[in-house]
Amino acid sequence: MNNAEWGSIYKDLGLEPIINATGSVTALGGSVVAKEVQEGMDLANDVYIPMTLLEQKVGDQIAKILDVPAAYITSGAGSALTLAAASFMAGKDDDKIQQLPDTSGMPNKILIQKRQRYWYDRCMELSGGKLVEVGDESGTTAEQLMDAIDEHTACVHYPVYEQDDKDPNILSLEEVIEIAHSKNKPVSVDAAGQIYPLENFGKYVKMGADFQCIAAKYMGAPHSTGIAIGTKDVIDSISRHSFVGYESRRIRGIGRPHKIDRQEIIGVLYAVKRWMSMNHEERLSIAEKKTFNIINELKNIEGITVKLIDNIIGHQPFGLSLDIDDKFFATNNEKFVEILKNSDPQIWTRVPDGENTIVIHVFGMTEEQSEIVSEVIKRELEVLKL
User: Fold this and answer.
1) Of 113, 60, 311, 66, which Cα lies nearest the Cα of 212?
2) Which of 48, 138, 216, 258 is deepest in the core (most CB within 10 A)?
3) Using alpha carbons only, how large is the chain's radius of gyration in Å?
4) pTM higher than 0.90 for the full model?
5) What are the respective helix, strand and coil percentages of the chain, to the nearest 5?
6) Do residues 319 and 327 make contact, with C-beta atoms less than 8 angstroms apart?
7) What does the pLDDT look like over 51-60, one tens digit per residue?
């Protein structure tokens, strides 16, 4: 790594650049724009186009590529969730669109299984809806969901993590779709990271869900981009609630702050085309190599436990977990994360919420940086050795 060049644009601002060992997280800027994507964005930069037409044409192309009914580009997956919730509550009624986030007189309950509550479900409430838990910590039954759906229900929301073990105590997505649709209520799916295997990309709408979101940053698009996928009716409704609808139709919906520029919309199209045609075996091989660059340097150090994360599903393949035994070192996992943040160079990683192990992901680092990560960890542990 050439420190004279690396991060100089941030150093000029008095900021210290970091090595990202956390992954594709919003707090660190999300993603690196792929070269092909940047080229497409550059081509779009000095040409103006009606945004309504651009959204329609790009959405149509992506829908065709994914073999789904319709798609729409949003300012991130969270934006897609908020706009979808708005569409499930107010639909295409212009008066109701302008009434949001006041949901008086419209269905505003967004049902979610208690055991499926997660950090980003808040996005479903930002247009005025209210999350209502179904079931309890022990699980949810079909009868409980059936009983919870009434005239005040806007939709049933369901987050998907294909890389995790299935929870036997909750209703499956198939069951939720069947129950919700039997009562003429739509199903929303947060599938932000479900971009691999490729058949998962759009899978949930094909299963019968009315909407799902994708975070386009995971495919080399700008951090601030996402894709709403769904039925033609839902996507048409989302377009009316969006910033484009606000300006082109002069309807003052909640989507005005969710602005995205023409360059980013083209960037998402290029990212999807790249993702659907790239050599994923090579992509996974590179991630695996970066992971083992770290593991092989650390695995024989007494007092730490290093384990491979062998997952390849979703957006963040491979990586490793690191456990430090405080009988051998004057630190523990939580403290060591802070030590790495203050190392030279700074390395940002974390102990994920609800866990007690340091998790290192290689999504955001180059191969050279993966070697630096192992060197810095070894150096800092040597100082802390008891």
Assistant:
1) 66
2) 216
3) 22
4) yes
5) 45, 15, 40
6) no
7) 999 999 999 9
